[in-house]
Amino acid sequence: MTAAIALGKRQLDRSEQLEQLRRQMAAVSGKVGAAPPVTDVANEVLPTSESLLPIPESLAGQLPMGLPRGAVAVVSGARSLPVSMAAAVTAGGGHVAVVGLPDFGLLAAVEMGADLSRLAVIPDPGTDPVEVAAVLMDGMDLVVLGLAGRTVTATRARAVVARARQKGCTLLVAQGDWQGATVRLDARVSGYETTAGHGGSPVPGSGRISRVRLSVRAHGRVARSKVS
Questions:
Q1: 190: helix, coil or strand?
Q2: What is the CA radius of gyration of the chain?
Q3: According to the model, what pLDDT value does residue 39 have?
Q4: Alpha carbon distance 46, 163 (integer Å)
Q5: Confidence of residue 216 (pLDDT cuts 50, 70, 90)
Q6: Which ranges of the chain does DSSP label H, i.e. alpha helix?
């Protein structure tokens, strides 16, 4: 079952909210103990050659070396790209947290092969979703973070990036910007595949969408910049 976690809006200060979240996530992931404060994390780099995240088929051409754990990627365009990333990671045995994306497509994720028992959803992370995402890096392989149109500056990002590298957790940023991101991905819908109707043959304009085809452009240190 998908784990849905929300920060209470009672009169809790930020430290109490984060401690509550850590306890809830410990129950979800089976890990014990609170994570250290983000600002106390050393800048330890996980070699990209040692660990790569599973990626969906739509990214194979743009990320020939894969997406390294500990990287920060910014995605824009089609919302199905973060969903397909989450599906690929959970299907490969990893754990994913989705923060600040209340309309994240869980049904679409299942249809892409996602294992919902490995997916935690935090639709309302409160006033500081970046801090919540940093906390969740302890025990997760991928954190998908919705910024609701905000930009995270390089100064604010530095400690979170260091934590992502230390924990080997990839951060996928949607609906906003993250200065200094490792790679940027822009996805556009290029077509659809539909299932056949009752007659057995596909009919234009009818049937059920079985797959969305994406054209993805990638820029960054681990990307090959071209369209699929």
A1: strand
A2: 18
A3: 40
A4: 11
A5: low
A6: 14-29, 80-91, 106-111, 129-136, 154-167
Instruction: Name which residue leads in pLDDT, 5 or 227.
Output: 5
Residue type, position 52, single letter: L
Q: Which helix (H) or strand (E) holds 192?
A: strand 183-194
Tokens 């970046």 appear where?
Answer: 130
Neighbour-count burial of 110, counting CB atoms closer than 10 A to its CB (0-12 exposed, 13-18 middle, 19+ buried)? middle
The pLDDT > 90 percentage for the chain reads 44
Which of 25 and 81 is assigned the larger pLDDT? 81
Q: Collapsing DSSP states into helix, strand and coil, what is residue 127? A: coil
**CA–CA dist 173, 203 (Å, integer):** 37
* Whether 152 contacts 33, CB under 8 Å: no
> Which residues share a beta bridge with 75?
174, 185
The CA dihedral of 217, 220, 221, 224, to the nearest 10 degrees, is 20
Tell which wins on pLDDT, 177 or 211: 177
End-to-end alpha carbon distance in the chain:
34
Give which of 72, 50, 33 is closest to 162, Cα–Cα: 72
**Token pair for residue 14?**
């930020």
Pairing of β 52-53 and β 72-77: unpaired
What is the pLDDT confidence band of residue 135, given thresholds at 50, 70 and 90?
Answer: very high
| Residue listed under structure tokens 């390089």 | 154
